Amino acid sequence: SEPDEASSYDPFVRSEVEYDAATRLQMAEEIASTRRMFVSPILKDIMVNPENFYHECQQSAKMAEDANQRRQMSFNTKREAYIHQM
Amino acid sequence: NEEFRGGPGVASPSPPAALLSEPLSRMDVLSEKIWDYHNKVSQTDEMLQRKLHLRDMLYTAISPVFPLSGLYVVGSSLNGFGNNSSDMDLCLMITNKDLDQKNDAVVVLNLILSTLQYEKFVASQKLILAKVPILRIKFAAPFDDITVDLNANNSVAIRNTHLLCYYSSYDWRVRPLVSVVKEWAKRKGINDANKSSFTSYSLVLMVIHYLQCGTEARVLPNLQQSYPTRFSNKVDVRTLNVTMPLEPVQDDIDPSLSENTTLGELLIGFLDYYANEFNYDRDAISIRQGKRVERAALAVRPKVHLSSEGEKEAPLPSSSASSSSVHNGIGVPMHHSLSNPHFWRSQWRCVCIEEPFTNSNTAHSIYDEMVFGAIKEAFREAHSELQDNRDLDRLLECEPIKASTTNA
């Protein structure tokens, strides 16, 4: 049975759609032409042969943990500094 | 006098002699107030997690159209200087080359706009055509309190986010100092680039500069000099990783000296430095060089190279960042400002703060002499106020400057 729309909504489910290079380029060209712009050769190359720029070093779990550690560290060094200043 | 203090006949007891001695008085009320204020307003872990969650949702929606792209969090959300109301700046990376911001970036952002319009978590979108075009995205609940500004391939933002992140956690006093300075500037009406005053980024650079060379004992080193390979503008932005600790190197910071200055003293010193010591006519702020430099030396050096990032033939050894990210002030395309020496000079007219990677002036928005005069006056007032009373609440209960071009 079809799940109802609300319960099936999950932003983390990756889109089923994976456009191929030709489709991606066509999408870009359509967007550009409706706005009197153009797909430059550089942009065309990026759309057709994408290079890996994934944010490997900025993954969310690592970033959240890192921010928390920095906060703890600043609390500790603040405490030590105040003892030192006494 | 006695009557005023304790009422007639009630003499106030003298504090114990020990409390009046220098060491204990260093643990002052002002420093505690600054620290408490910072902890009240700084970005919470919960807010950061919600922002990162939102970034991941956006990436899921964008990646079918831009497979293998990277969606990087930049600016205050990740540089350590964010407060809880901060919006989130994102940078979509698709190439190592300079992406033309006039045409190509606009096509990219339009393509994303049309993709996101089918996403239920996106409430509204607006394309803002500026020097670096921005897609401003607002969201449905529960993310309706966060606004995202997305740019296409403006990679210098990733570099300076990375650099500022290390400055923000180098010493525990840096972030509280910035929190208070930002709030003071906001209430004073001088933290608004649209009103021809400072951006938050400029204020952060001003604090870092002061801690690098405006205090008696240095608090911050010059990270770009101490770690040339880590903070070079040649490093591939994909490898920039703020979770990697800095290996200790020799620098001229004496922790035992530096630690003797309290947070309160640093705030008073900051206001003093920009009210009385810094010579705006002669000096420019350079984080990259870790010192004051002659503004003439910066202003005569137009960035004419338009080479791609990472290319080796950049004409100036100290500057190879993308030209696309260079702001010229009032939305005039880069080539106009370069071909027009008057325009170039006007960018450096009032306050000179060198961007650590592009060498442009981050304070270019201050071009109005009236506003500039009011800003200098605001620093002088704030300094004498805080020095006399050491009262943070009184400092923050200030009236906005009157010379603002839009309020006039």
Beta-strand percentage of chain B?
A: 5-15%
Give the total of beta strands of chain B.
8
Class by helix and strand content of chain A? mainly alpha
Estimated helix fraction of chain B: 40-55%
Low-confidence stretches of chain B: 1-10, 21-27, 303-345
Tally of alpha and pi helices of chain A: 4
- How would you sum up the global shape of chain B? globular
Can you count the beta strands of chain A?
0
Q: Proportion of β residues of chain A?
A: under 5%
Specify the biggest β-sheet of chain A.
none
- Element pattern of chain B in H and E: HHHHHEHEHEEEHHHHHHEEHHHEHH
**What does the average pLDDT of chain A come to?**
82
Describe this structure in words.
The complex is a heterodimer of chains A (86) and B (408). Chain A is built from four helices and no strands. In chain A, 60% of the residues lie in helices and 0% in strands. Chain A has helices at residues 5-8, 21-34, 41-48, 60-85. Chain A is elongated, with a radius of gyration of 24 Å. By secondary structure, chain A is an all-alpha fold. Chain B has 18 helices and eight strands. Chain B has helices spanning 2-6, 17-20, 22-25, 29-41, 45-62, 76-79, 104-116, 156-168, 174-188, 200-213, 223-226, 255-258, 263-277, 295-299, 334-339, 341-347, 369-389, 392-396; strands spanning 70-74, 88-93, 122-128, 134-139, 147-152, 283-286, 291-294, 353-354. In chain B, α9 crosses α10 (200-213) and α13 (263-277) runs antiparallel to α17 (369-389). The longest helix of chain B is centred in the C-terminal third of the chain and has 21 residues, at 369-389. Chain B starts with a helix and ends in a 12-residue tail after the last helix. Classes of the chains: A mainly alpha (86), B alpha/beta (408). Chains A and B meet through α2, α3 and α4 of A and α5, β1 and α7 of B.
